[in-house]
Amino acid sequence: MESIGQRFKNVRKVLNMSQEQFADSLGITKQAISNVEHSKSLPSTAVMNKMLINFDVNLNYLISEVGNMFNNQDKIYKSLRAQLMSEMETMLDARGIK
For residue 57, is it within any domain? Predict the structure, then answer.
C-alpha cells in the first residue's frame, strides 16, 4: 500500500504539474509539497480540501487508496489530453511542422 505522500505525488504527476506549480495552486510552499511527498509531514485538511475542490481528487483515494484518483476520471483525462495536444501543436508549429 502506498503512503499518502506517494498518492499525493501521483496526483501531482497525473496533473502534469511541477512541485512549484502544485504548491502555487494549493497556496502552500514547494517545500511543503516536498515534505508531504517524502512522508516528512501530512497534508493539512485545508490542503486536502483544496485538492478536492481544485482538481476533483477522490478523498477516499487520497486517504486510503480506495477508488479512482479523481471523482470524474473521464473529465480529468480529457482535459489532460487536450492540454497535451495543444502543447504538441505549439511545438510542431514552432518547428514549421504541420
Answer: yes
